Amino acid sequence: MKISIISSSTRKGRISHRIALALKSALAERGLEVQLVDLLEVKLAPFEERLARIENPEPRFVELEKQLNSTDAFIFVSPEYNGAIASGLKNFIDFYAKGPFMHKAIGVATGSTGSMGGIRAAYQLQQNILTIHGFPHPQMLTVAKMDQTIAEDGTIVDERTAASFDKFLELFLAFATKLRS
Ligand SMILES: Cc1cc2nc3c(=O)[nH]c(=O)nc-3n(C[C@H](O)[C@H](O)[C@H](O)COP(=O)(O)O)c2cc1C
């Protein structure tokens, strides 16, 4: 099973990317094929039109679409900005949806440096996923104090945070596997 992680913070000194790095190594450890799509590298312009409706799209965007199409399940990682998901993630969803996401399991992972772990963004993301005909898993990963609980290289340095990653992955992977079959 191939899983793509979408890391959506493009902010200088971003911290939520650590969640994406931690997920990437946890999935690789479990023997899964994992692709990390870093929106900082994708560099989408502000939304003008959906990829499917652009006459001569940039080949790199078409290539990424192929990669997304060949993905069995996604995990969307977002910080919470003013009670919402990162605008870059919404832009990415609007640009590529619905094709690559339809009828696939999509995990929600949010983080903040505060104690709520981006829960408002997480619930919002569940709604967005339903709208693009994906299946959001009910168990969301919300990482509080992510600057203190995950090191820069993605190493989880807090026991409770490590346990929440394990629980999320166990349930999400069971769901994604069932949905795929
Ligand atoms: C524009 C902006 C808005 C923010 N809004 C929230 C918020 O609504 N809730 C929250 O818990 N933290 C909020 N924060 C603090 C973030 O949790 C913290 O800056 C975090 O590091 C952002 O993720 P990133 O480093 O991956 O960009 C906000 C930060 C920024 C820059």
Describe the structure.
With 181 residues, the chain is an alpha/beta fold. It has one domain (2-180): Rossmann fold (3-Layer(aba) Sandwich), CATH 3.40.50.360. 43% of the residues lie in helices and 17% in strands. It contains seven helices and six strands. It has helices at residues 17-29, 39-42, 59-69, 87-96, 119-131, 146-149, 159-180, and strands at residues 2-7, 33-38, 73-79, 105-111, 135-136, 141-143. Strands 1, 2, 3, 4, 5 and 6 form a six-stranded parallel β-sheet that branches. The chain is globular, with a radius of gyration of 15 Å. The structure holds flavin mononucleotide. Residues 9, 11, 14-16, 79-83, 112-114, 116, 118 line the site of flavin mononucleotide.
Describe this structure in a few short sentences.
The protein has helices spanning 17-29, 39-42, 59-69, 87-96, 119-131, 146-149, 159-180, and strands at 2-7, 33-38, 73-79, 105-111, 135-136, 141-143. The chain is of the alpha/beta class and 181 residues long.
What are its keywords?
binds flavin mononucleotide; 6-stranded parallel beta sheet; alpha/beta; 7 helices; 181 residues; Rossmann fold; single chain
